[in-house]
Design goal:
Blueprint: E1 9-14, H1 30-40, E2 44-50, E3 55-56, E4 64-65, H2 73-83, E5 87-93, H3 98-103, E6 108-110, E7 116-121, H4 127-141, E8 147-151, H5 163-173, H6 183-211, E9 216-219, E10 238-241, H7 247-258, E11 265-270, E12 272-273, E13 278-279, H8 282-293, E14 298-304, H9 315-332, E15 336-337, E16 341-345, H10 347-352, H11 366-379, E17 384-388, H12 389-394, H13 397-400, E18 405-408, H14 416-427, E19 431-435, H15 437-442, H16 444-447, E20 449-464, E21 467-480, E22 484-490, E23 500-509, E24 512-517, H17 530-540, E25 549-551, E26 557-564, E27 567-574, E28 593-601, E29 609-612, E30 616-617, E31 620-623, E32 626-634, E33 637-642
Parallel strand pairs: 1-2, 1-14, 2-5, 3-4, 5-8, 8-9, 10-11, 11-14, 16-17, 16-18, 18-19, 19-24
Antiparallel strand pairs: 6-7, 12-13, 15-26, 20-21, 22-23, 23-24, 25-28, 26-27, 27-33, 28-32, 29-30, 29-33, 31-32
Helix pairs in contact: 1-2, 1-9, 4-6, 7-8, 8-9
């Protein structure tokens, strides 16, 4: 059986059994599971064992069993996956365990007002030692499960004021837990709770690995955009289930947050939407899979188990999806990024204004601004990564210099070491784009401006050539000192001279350039406009003149550059779908983009240029350090490989 680090395509099933659950396994049978594994051929299956309700759907001797089991679904899964040499993982809810709290009220995390949580257990209490770890060991030893995907973990944890938490805080700091009006104390207390969450994960990983060293563990969304940090805890892989709707944009962002991980990573798509519940079509699933595969990650698809029974009528669709993915596996899986642009995701900025532990809810909308900025850069045709703080801080000067430009969304604080690295990067010839009123205020010395920020929101109206754009943003009054003004924007549609404000500036700094864009780009993710998209390209091209890949006549072919085994992969992803339209729940048609002319930077004349996965050799011209070729049709995801 493949280890998770070598796995590429998997399937996830769960159903969160509850106390009144009846008929578990009644319609589950060996033949259906056998048909699934025969046709789909996944590297692994994740099946239900214990959901958020805390009720186990198998006959556990450790946890709390569902009241009625008409079939042993876990036994069926294990026997048939062993027959097919397929790994089996447990879907297991961690922090969220409602039944544990019902039976042990003292295990509940507690809100600041003293109200006990009904969902989240305390990471400080005996739950992890008395229930969670023993049950994971039971799954490993008695049921021969290969690993666990711990759900409801970081995103389920809360700022905990239980006596367990307050006693440990007092012991470590000598301080009492802060009151609701002590903002400084609350910030320090939230940081303490975050550290303790990581200690809780480390503890259960270490304890399970002591007894079952081959048991592979992931804590859902650990070491992602939710909880960015250096990968010091002994989880075996990184994983998360991205949003069931607006899924492609979610995969774009979350995949890039994991792309540079040192551990194996994969992302899970929901095979259905909610509100209303409807299954996604094959074409839709392929579009989502392409986003993850292009970045080098593994892909899995989630469908519910209905009281333990899978929806048999979807098996053929899943088999086709698996074929789509497998056709790209050799080219894409574990490929490394080729550096062009990067957007920084600062851990310090992520946590600075958060009132919870790990969910996105920053008062200054830093998460939204980073999303919008990244999407605009990608839509403008650049291959861009998302760099987490620890990744930037660990880079040498030479490693950082490989990036042609680096961008920062709207923030009011960043790690001192990152700021210093960016200053040196620009001095040596790099380009940094600072976007948003708070960010530009923070970097005003380097930008060569004075910035006065007004918190009132308004619409910045942008014009570039014949394109119009708008960004909803805070106001910034900008006075250029050493900087040159690049452009202006207006808050009035009539574009009166008295109404114009500074849109962007640039400042030569050593051998490089700092570019300031004074509106924030957060609103771009919800209201994309051609002017806002094209303006990013104009700002970047102040210094970085020519993209690594130029795709003519369309902005719907997103570019992802990777390399594997010495081969350059130019991933092209077709974005001409209604994927972000909330009025479209599913779709079964993706209009192909025809007759693409693609120009690719390459240092020497290649031996050959091939389109994958078809294997078709493409004709090309090589001139001035660029390969120019044509792609007749881009359906969903094609890779131009250059050898």
């Amino acid at each position: 059986m493949k280890k998770r680090k070598d796995s590429f395509f998997g399937m996830h099933f769960d159903f969160h059994a509850h106390n009144d659950q009846t008929g578990i396994g009644e319609f589950c049978d060996y033949d259906t599971i056998d048909e699934l594994l025969t046709k789909v051929k996944p590297d692994y299956i994740q099946c239900d064992t214990k959901g958020h309700q805390g009720i186990s759907s198998y006959p556990t001797n450790v946890g709390y069993r569902a009241p009625e089991m008409k079939g042993d679904i876990l036994k069926m899964w294990r026997e048939v996956t062993q027959k097919h040499d397929v790994a089996l993982y447990s879907h297991f809810s961690g922090v969220w365990d409602f039944e544990a709290i019902i039976r042990h009220p003292d295990w509940a995390a507690v809100k600041i007002d003293g109200t006990p949580e009904t969902r989240a257990t305390s990471v400080f209490c005996p739950y992890v030692d008395e229930l969670m770890i023993p049950q994971l060991i039971e799954l490993a030893k008695d049921w021969h499960i290969n690993g666990v995907w711990v759900d409801g973990d970081c995103w389920g944890a809360i700022v905990d004021f239980s006596h367990w938490a307050k006693e440990k805080y007092k012991k470590e700091t000598g301080l009492d837990a802060p009151s609701e009006d002590d903002e400084t104390g609350l910030k320090e207390y939230r940081d303490f709770c975050r550290r303790e969450f990581f200690e809780y994960v480390k503890h259960y990983c270490d304890e399970v690995h002591k007894v079952c060293p081959d048991f592979q563990v992931a804590s859902n969304w650990l070491y992602s955009s939710y909880s960015p940090g250096d990968e010091t805890i002994g989880v075996d892989f990184i994983s998360g289930d991205y949003a069931p709707t607006n899924s492609i944009n979610s995969a774009i962002f979350e995949g890039r947050a994991m792309q540079n991980s040192t551990k194996a990573w994969d992302l899970m798509c929901w095979g259905f939407t909610t509100n209303p519940y409807v299954s996604k079509e094959y074409e839709q699933l392929c579009a989502e899979a392409g986003e993850v595969i292009a970045l080098g990650g593994g892909f899995e698809v989630y469908n519910p188990q209905v009281a333990g029974t899978i929806e048999k009528h979807h098996i053929d669709k899943w088999a086709k999806l698996a074929e789509f993915c497998r056709a790209r596996e050799t080219t894409c899986h574990k490929a490394s990024p080729v550096h062009e642009g990067a957007v920084i995701l600062s851990q310090k900025a992520v946590y600075n204004h958060k009132t919870d532990l790990f969910r996105w809810n920053s008062k200054n909308n830093y998460g939204e601004d980073t999303h919008g900025l990244l999407f605009a850069i990608l839509d403008a045709g650049y291959s861009s990564e998302l760099l987490l703080s620890h990744q930037v801080m660990s880079m040498s000067k030479e490693e950082l210099s490989q990036y042609k430009f680096i961008a920062i969304g709207n923030l009011d604080i960043i790690e001192d070491e990152i700021k210093e690295k960016l200053i040196n990067y620009v001095k040596q010839g790099g380009e940094v784009i600072i976007c948003g009123p708070d960010s530009t205020k923070y970097f005003e010395k380097e930008l060569g401006v004075r910035v006065e920020v007004n918190d009132d929101k308004f619409e910045a109206k942008i014009k570039i050539k014949d394109k119009s754009g708008v960004l909803t943003t805070k106001t910034a009054k900008v006075t250029a000192e050493s900087a040159e003004i690049l452009d202006y924007y207006y808050t009035d549609r009539y574009e009166r001279e008295s109404d114009r404000k500074v849109l962007a500036t640039y400042n030569k700094y050593g051998k490089g350039t700092f570019v300031g864009i004074y509106p924030s780009y957060g609103s771009y993710q919800d209201a994309k406009t051609t002017g806002a998209r094209d303006y990013i390209e104009k700002a970047i091209s102040v210094q970085y003149k020519t993209k690594k890949v130029i795709v003519e006549n369309t902005h719907y072919a997103q570019v992802v550059l990777t390399t594997k085994n010495g081969v350059l992969n130019v991933n092209l992803l077709n974005h001409s779908t209604p994927h972000s339209n909330s009025r479209v729940s599913n779709f079964d048609e993706i209009l192909p983009i025809m007759d693409l002319k693609v120009s690719i930077e390459y240092p020497l004349k290649p031996r050959r240029v091939i389109e994958m996965p078809s294997g078709k050799e493409l004709e090309y011209e090589y001139k001035d350090g660029r390969v120019v070729t044509k792609l007749d049709k881009l359906e969903v995801h094609s890779i131009i490989t250059i050898e």
